[in-house]
Design a protein that fits this description.
Elements lengths: L1 H49 L5 H11 L3 H28 L1 H8 L7 H26 L3 H26 L1 H22 L1 H7 L12 H32 L2 H22 L1 H12 L3 H28 L1 H8 L11 H23 L3 H26 L2 H21 L1 H5 L4
Helix pairs in contact: 1-5, 1-6, 1-7, 1-9, 1-10, 2-3, 2-5, 2-9, 2-11, 3-5, 4-5, 5-7, 6-7, 9-10, 9-15, 10-14, 11-14, 12-14, 14-16, 15-16
């Protein structure tokens, strides 16, 4: 599969530079700083979706469908630019004028990082444009240029984080992370110039909401889920800090960062390949065959990779962080098992996004988020921070069972 080979180099470089940035952050700001940065990254993830009103997956789908129809593409981009303008105004008001309130809720009343949200307020329009260009490259399946831009962004972002953290400590880290969207915007506009000028005619962009209904279904799905998932992560980080310590919250954040690194390989497959393919599938047999194909190709690689991560977990911790983080080694087993079940389940549940099955998607995702928090509350008292990763594993077992039940006819019914 072309997307696999194009994505491999990107993942390897991402892992390498993540190693560099995580190591620097661990040395310079420690576990407490890692926990605070984790909270800001959760805020960024929400606004990455909210800046385009949660239409990213819809954009990928319709760009893929109408890439040869300039008129429809103009209507699509006109609609999403209107959405982005609305989202940018709302976001600016919230981030700029409620910066102190957000500081108290996200970082704690003893911290004075409200200025970070004011910086973020000015970057929202750039986040929106980045999201649109990202969707364009995905929808066109432009794997090579997507990988090239991804590599440049990773390298540039790492240098920015390392430099500002070295100069200003935790304040520098927070400024760097909140400023990265502007850096990404510059890189996107320079290196995807030929692509977006061929498909986005700025002269034809106007107030046009002809794709409103089609995109809003994706909007509802994404915004609800991304909001609650990131709020839950912040809440769990506060829970660990309250029940254990802020250092333990930093350990869990470090564990989730490692998880995101090794899951990057599969994560990129979903918008780049699975979503466009699922969108075009119209019969049960093709759906089953595609699932088998994906599992055969990726599951062996994922299992082997996870076994390697587990066996060398202590060396990975020492390479990425410092001896202060060695206590997180006990988190790997349940985190890896949970991530494996998560991948298996999401390969199936991505059908909900591709076919705009809003009710199923929102129900399963919110159920997963709610179960994660509830199980964390229960397990943390008995198992400490390990209880949070146990909760991660258990919630995806339940999630997988529920998805299987919903898709039982498509997966198990006899084809006449």
């Amino acid at each position: 599969m072309k997307v696999t080979s194009a994505n491999t180099l990107l993942v390897v470089v991402r892992m390498l530079f993540s190693l560099i940035s995580q190591k620097v952050l661990a040395i310079l700001i420690g576990a407490e700083g890692i926990a605070l940065i984790g909270n800001l990254k959760n805020i960024n993830r929400f606004f990455e979706q909210f800046s385009v009103l949660g239409t990213s997956n819809g954009l990928v789908k319709y760009i893929s469908e109408y890439k040869d129809n300039k008129r429809q593409l103009n209507n699509l981009f006109s609609t999403v630019f209107v959405f982005s303008a609305i989202a940018s105004i709302v976001s600016f008001i919230i981030l700029f004028f409620w910066s102190n309130t957000l500081n108290d809720a996200i970082f704690g009343i003893d911290k004075q990082f409200g200025f970070v949200f004011k910086i973020l307020a000015f970057t929202i329009p750039f986040i929106a444009i980045n999201g649109i260009l990202y969707a364009l490259l995905n929808g066109l399946s432009a794997y090579k240029i997507f990988s090239k831009i991804g590599l440049i962004i990773i390298i540039a972002s790492t240098f920015l984080i390392v430099f500002l953290t070295y100069k200003f400590g935790i304040v520098g880290s927070l400024i760097a992370i909140s400023s990265i969207p502007f850096l990404q915007f510059i890189i996107y506009t320079i290196f995807s110039n030929k692509v977006y000028t061929n498909y986005i005619d700025l002269k034809e962009i106007k107030i046009n909401l002809s794709f409103k209904n089609k995109l809003l279904s994706y909007s509802l799905m994404t915004i609800v889920v991304i909001f609650f998932s990131n709020v839950t992560d912040i809440a769990i980080r506060h829970l660990i800090e309250e029940k254990q310590s802020i250092s333990e919250a930093g350990n869990w954040t470090a564990m989730t960062s490692i998880s995101r690194i090794y899951m990057q390989f599969t994560a990129a497959i979903f918008p780049l390949y699975i979503l466009p393919v699922y969108s075009k599938i119209s019969n049960i047999l093709d759906f089953r065959n595609e699932i088998i194909k994906i599992y055969k190709m990726l599951l062996p690689l994922l299992v082997v990779g996870m076994l390697i991560v587990f066996v060398f977990r202590v060396y990975i911790i020492k390479a990425l962080y410092t001896n202060e983080f060695l206590g997180m080694s006990s988190l790997f087993k349940w985190q890896l098992m949970g991530d494996l079940v998560k991948f298996i389940a999401i390969v199936l549940s991505y059908q909900f996004i591709a076919k705009r099955q809003i009710g199923y998607f929102i129900f399963t995702e919110l159920m997963s988020v709610l179960l994660f928090y509830c199980f964390s509350l229960y397990f943390i008292d008995n198992y400490g921070t390990d209880g949070v990763v146990i909760a991660h594993f258990v919630r995806y077992i339940v999630f997988f069972i529920v998805v299987l039940f919903i898709l039982r006819d498509k997966l198990f019914a006899k084809i006449l």
